[in-house]
Amino acid sequence: MHVYFSGVGGVGVGPLAEIALDLGYRVSGSDPAISQQTATLKNRGVVICQNQGGHDMAKLHELNPIDWFVYTSALPPDNGELLFARQNGIRASKRHELLNHVIRQQRLKLIAVAGTHGKTTTSAMLAWLLGGLGEPVSYSVGTALSFGPSGRYQPGSRFFVYECDEYDRNFLQFKPDLSVITSLDYDHPDSYAKPEDYRQAFRDFLNQSAIGLMWQSDAEYLGVPPEAGHIKIYPEASGQLDGISLAGPHNRRNAFLAVAAAERLLEGVRREKIVKLINNFPGTARRFEKLADNLYSDYAHHPKEIAATLQLAAELSDKIAVVYQPHQNLRQHAVAGTYGGCFEPARTIYWLPTYLSREDPSLKVLSPAELTDGLDERHRIILSVLDDRLWQNIQKARRAGCLVVAMSAGSLDGWLRQKLVEDTET
C-alpha cells in the first residue's frame, strides 16, 4: 500500500509515517519546511516534496497511484494536494483513520496518554518503561526521542502507546484500552470555544476508555465522581511519589502515572524495578533539553507549563533567565492576564513577539507590551526579537553563570540550534 502524508514533518503525522514504513508500506509525503523529522524520513528512503502551499501538483502526478492520502489537521480545505486526492478517487483522511486501521489490523491494545500538559513526556516515559522491561512496544510520540524514533511499530507488540492530543478533537476518534490523563487546563480555543467545551471533551474521552488513570485535581476539574468504577483517581499526596527521583515536580508526577500504567499492563513486575528504570529516563527533545552549558530548550507555551518548567530549573540554579516566545495569537487572547506568578523564579525575561499559527485574521495581534503589562515588577522584562543582540545577551548570561531557559512551540528552538552551530563553525 502506498500512503502519502501531507504535513509529514509535523509531530503528529511524522511518527505515523515511520510506523507505516515499519509495516512495509510505501511512503511519500510533503511538508513546506525542512526539519529533523523530514531528514529522518528521507534517510529511510521516503520521497518528500517541499511543497509550499500545497499547490504544486507535478510531483503528486509522478507519485500516483496513491492508495491513501493522510493529512494534518492544520491543512486548509482548499489545499491543492487534498483536492488532487479527492478528484482522483484516492482515500483521504486525517491521521486517526490510518492509526485506527493499524491498531485493528495488528490487534494492538491502545494505551492513550492525553492532557493539556505532560502528555509527550508521559507517553515517552511509558514507551521507555515497556521497552526497558523487555516488552515489544509500538508507539507514537510527538517529539524526537534519544532512545528510538518518534514513531515505531515492533513485531510482537501487544500495546500501542499513543500521545493522544485533544487539538481538533483528535482524541475522540479512539477507544483506548487504558487512558492516562496527565494534567488539565483550558487550551486550544480554536477547537473549544469555552472551557466547558474542553472539559466535556475530556469527559467524553474518559467515557470511551475501558480504564482511566488520573490525578484527583484533574478529576475535580472535570467533575468525575470518586465512585466512577473504570477510573482510578490518585490523591495529591507527595508520598505517592516515593522512590521517583527525577528533577522537577511535574516530571515526578508524570513518572508516577507512567509507572502506574506499566504496573497495570505488566502484571507481576515489581514496582521497585519499574521505578529504578524510570529514574534513568533520558528525557525527550524540547522538554527541558540541554542544548549547551547553561542553555535549555523547552516546549512550554502556556502559563501552567511555564511555571512547571521553572520549578524544575529552580532545582538546578538560583540564577535563571527566560527567553519566551508566545505561541498563537488566539491562545494569547485566552491566557492574557494569567501569566502572573508563573515566571517567579526568573530574574530576567526576554519576551518575543507571538509566533503566529492557525490564526483568525480578524483578531488583533496582542503585542509583547500588552502581554507583559502587569507582570511582577521584580522581573527585568526586555522586549526583544530573534536577532544578534538577543544572542549576545544569552551568551553573556550563560558566561555569568545564569541558567537560560528558552520556551517556545515556535521558531525559537530552531534559531538557537542554528546559532550554536554558527558559533562552533567560527
UniProtKB/TrEMBL annotation:
Span of domain Mur ligase N-terminal catalytic: 2-106
Domain of life from the UniProt record: Bacteria
Pfam families: Mur_ligase (PF01225), Mur_ligase_M (PF08245)
Domain Mur ligase central: 113-210
UniProt-recorded Gene Ontology molecular function terms: acid-amino acid ligase activity; ATP binding
Record-given protein name: UDP-N-acetylmuramate--L-alanine ligase
Provenance organism: Candidatus Chaera renei
